[in-house]
Specification:
This protein is α+β, with helices and mostly antiparallel strands. Helices cover about 35% and strands about 20% of the residues. It has a 7-stranded mixed sheet. A 6-stranded mixed sheet has the order 3-2-1-5-14-13, sandwiched between helices. A two-stranded antiparallel ribbon has the order 4-7. Helix 9 packs across helix 14, helix 10 packs antiparallel against helix 12 and helix 12 crosses helix 13.
Length: about 500
């Protein structure tokens, strides 16, 4: 058995991909599940829908592997928070999704109390509703009886990977990997353990928290997919994409374009404290050795195309967006700031909301489509510049890209233009699932180590910048002005 099954549990769908011995994708199954919006700025998922679609897609993908698989790798939407009963496995509430902003008041209180420096120094993160810690605190405070049950040791916490591992192993393993732990705002990155002081401030019993393991490690076995299948690789989706892009050397950078956009810059063994409101995180942990990264998170990337389709009904499918943008009037300077659920890095403004500037009577679907796609490139540029200021060793980096939006040549060209840097799109674009598959294969001895895996990375196309510098700077000025008008407060230093 040499095939590897990668479970890729995402924000809007669950997917399962089967990889052959050469780590080439040979089968894929995907199912969407409902998004739940109980209030403005709140986003939830039904945990049972996550579980059902994960099982269903895994079983469909396994139909292409009649001889079975050697191991399973899991990658997942990060920060999304679940709490369930230790005995029954039943969740006490819907999962609170990473996009959810309901804990903004609690975050403001924590900042007022002066906890920001402690959180940044230990966890590498800013205090923000994005992360799991305050979501968990909200559940304990607002679900009836939850706090008493948690203090009695009857409840367990986990991000989506932990929940899936618990279900797949039928309650035998309560564990997460270092990359997912690093996104909770509860994990001390340098010490490699949960932080008792931060947990105490949030009222979180540490007995709820999972064991933290390496990315390539033993996460138990499952018999729910046929036979006894070992789970050997786990990483949060953006770290899995970093691995799948073979960004193993310090200074390498990747950006993933899904519902949101997430850029990671490998800083090696350097724990870099950002001076530009980026995050310090764990890129991966292998054989007990931690590699760090700077990360910038954009809340809305592909979601802006979904909004054009489902909200405004300007398009019937995402594929229509780029041809429509290409027909936009070049004389119109329409700029869209898609702060539907606030702005992420480097602004971290939970109260900002989306806006469109430069509208005229002549503005139509083409100009809005261009502004939507261009907003993703503008936001990436903000992250790119902040990373270069934080870690000058990055030099003149090349950006490796992946995710659904990279299929758009128009978007990738505009990205290269606004960065004034090359953008590389790989042959295998399923880099998130590929990273999870490599971790599982590496852990079972079926794949080479990082250097060997990096040697197999292949370029499909490089996008070189071609926009005149004067026009690039003019457009960046338009964007900076639009963001300044959108923010609910001035950017903190």
């Amino acid at each position: 058995m040499t095939a590897i099954l990668a479970i890729d549990q995402g924000t809007t769908s669950s997917r399962a991909l089967l990889f052959d011995r050469g780590l080439r994708p040979v089968a894929i199954a995907q199912e969407e599940f409902p998004q739940v919006f109980p209030a403005s700025g709140w986003v939830e998922h039904d945990p049972e829908a996550i579980w059902a679609t994960t099982l269903s897609t895994a079983r469909k993908a396994l139909e292409a592997a009649p001889d079975g698989v050697a191991a399973i790798g899991i990658t997942n939407q990060r920060e999304t928070t679940l709490v369930w009963d230790r005995d029954t496995g039943r969740p006490i509430h819907n999962a609170i999704v990473w996009q959810d902003r309901r804990t903004a008041p609690l975050c403001e209180t924590l900042r007022t109390e002066g906890l920001a420096e402690t959180v940044a120094d230990r966890t590498g993160l800013l205090i923000d509703p994005y992360f799991s810690g305050t979501k968990l605190a909200w559940l304990l405070e607002n679900v009836e009886g939850a706090r008493a049950q948690a203090e009695a040791g009857k409840l367990l916490f986990g991000t989506v990977d932990t929940f899936l591992i618990w279900r797949l192993t039928e309650g035998r393993v309560h564990a997460t990997d270092a990359t997912n732990a690093a996104r909770t705002m509860l994990f001390d990155l340098r010490r490699g353990e949960w932080d008792a002081e931060i947990c105490a401030r949030l009222g979180i019993p540490m007995a709820m928290l999972p064991e933290v393991r390496d990315c390539a490690a033993d996460y138990g076995t499952t018999t729910l997919l046929g036979g006894s299948l070992p789970i050997r690789g786990v990483a949060g989706d953006q770290q899995a994409a970093t691995i799948g892009q073979a960004c193993f050397q310090p200074g390498m950078m990747k950006s993933t374009y899904g519902t949101g956009c997430f850029a990671l810059l490998n800083t090696g063994t350097d724990f870099v404290r950002s001076r530009n409101r980026l995050l310090t995180t764990i890129a991966y942990r292998l054989n007990g050795e931690t590699t760090y990264a700077l990360e910038g998170s954009i809340f809305v990337a592909g979601a802006v195309v979904q909004w054009l389709r489902d909200g405004l009904r300007l398009i019937g499918s995402a594929a229509e967006t780029a041809p429509l943008a290409d027909r936009a009037d070049p004389a119109q300077d329409v700029v869209m700031v898609p702060a539907f659920t606030g702005l992420g890095a480097p602004y971290w403004d939970a109260e900002a909301r989306g806006a469109v500037f430069g509208l005229t009577r002549a503005t139509g679907p083409a100009e809005l489509a261009r502004a939507a796609l261009e907003s993703v490139a503008f936001q990436t540029r903000d992250l790119w510049e902040a990373m270069r200021r934080d870690w000058p060793s990055a030099g003149q980096a090349i950006l490796r890209v992946d995710g659904g939006m990279t299929a758009s040549d128009w978007t990738m060209q505009r990205l290269a233009d606004l960065l004034a840097a090359p953008v590389d799109r790989p042959v295998v674009r399923e880099t998130t699932a590929l990273g999870a598959a490599w971790l599982a294969a590496f852990a079972t001895g079926l794949a080479p180590g990082p250097e060997g895996f990096a040697g197999d990375w292949a370029l499909e196309r490089r996008f070189e910048p071609r926009m005149p510098e004067e026009e690039r700077l003019r457009r960046l000025d338009l964007w900076d002005d639009a963001v300044a008008r959108t923010l609910s407060r001035p950017v903190a230093g």
